[in-house]
């Protein structure tokens, strides 16, 4: 299977003392466009706004 399952975690929630939101998605193993950690803007229900979510390793 050429795709990896990854977890995206909110980067701003821990700084504010709230539980971080997590999303599960897939990523192409051989992608040249995103060689580092994947970042996406997703909604965090604890903070009630859109925040940056970064890939966990």
Automatic annotation (TrEMBL):
It holds the Pfam family Ribosomal_L33. GO terms for molecular function: structural constituent of ribosome. Keywords: Ribonucleoprotein, Ribosomal protein. GO terms for cellular component: cytoplasm; ribonucleoprotein complex; ribosome. Coiled coil: none annotated. InterPro entries: Ribosomal_bL33, Ribosomal_bL33_sf, Ribosomal_zn-bd. The keyword GTP-binding does not apply. GO terms for biological process: translation. The keyword Ribosomal protein applies. NCBIfam families: PRK00595.1, rpmG_bact. Belongs to the bacterial ribosomal protein bL33 family. This is Large ribosomal subunit protein bL33. It comes from Rubritalea squalenifaciens DSM 18772.
